[in-house]
UniProtKB/TrEMBL annotation:
Biological process (GO), any one: signal transduction
Predominant cellular place of this UniProt entry's protein: membrane
Signal peptide interval: 1-21
Compartmental location: Membrane
Protein name from the UniProt record: Uncharacterized protein
């Protein structure tokens, strides 16, 4: 299933880069709180978005299992061919993807993004601490 997720990724990258580069001593508290609220909202929205992608894939796997366990091999030759086509189609993963299926939106991607920005925040903290 192709759903455009690029705006979500761009917003995620923008907010996290803003948090990573924000000088904590010079920014007013209200701006900091607003940025953290937007970041938290984006995080919760991302979790829901990724959970729906995973749920779609789980449902697709359940359909494939149900077709396979339905004793389709006892059907007539014509019906068996139709069921085989259904089975082949149901065995394809159905995660939400973007960039023409180059990037699959799932928990693995979400974990990778979190690790990257955690490393970026620690790097920025170390650089600020030295100056």
């Amino acid at each position: 299933m192709k759903i455009i997720a690029i705006p979500w990724l761009i917003l995620w990258l923008f907010i996290m880069s803003e948090v990573a580069t924000m000088p904590l001593t010079e920014v007013p508290l209200a701006v900091q709180l607003r940025t953290y609220a937007v970041c938290g909202t984006l995080y919760v929205g991302s979790v829901k978005f990724i959970r729906e992608s995973e749920r779609m894939n789980e449902c697709q796997e359940m359909v494939a299992r149900a077709i396979y366990q339905s004793e389709w091999y006892r059907l007539s030759s014509r019906n068996r061919r139709m069921v085989c086509v259904m089975l082949r189609r149901s065995q394809r993963p159905t995660h939400i993807s973007c960039l023409n299926n180059m990037m699959i939106i799932d928990y693995k991607l979400f974990t990778g993004i979190n690790k990257f920005f955690y490393s970026l925040l620690n790097c920025m903290k170390n650089v600020r601490g030295r100056h």
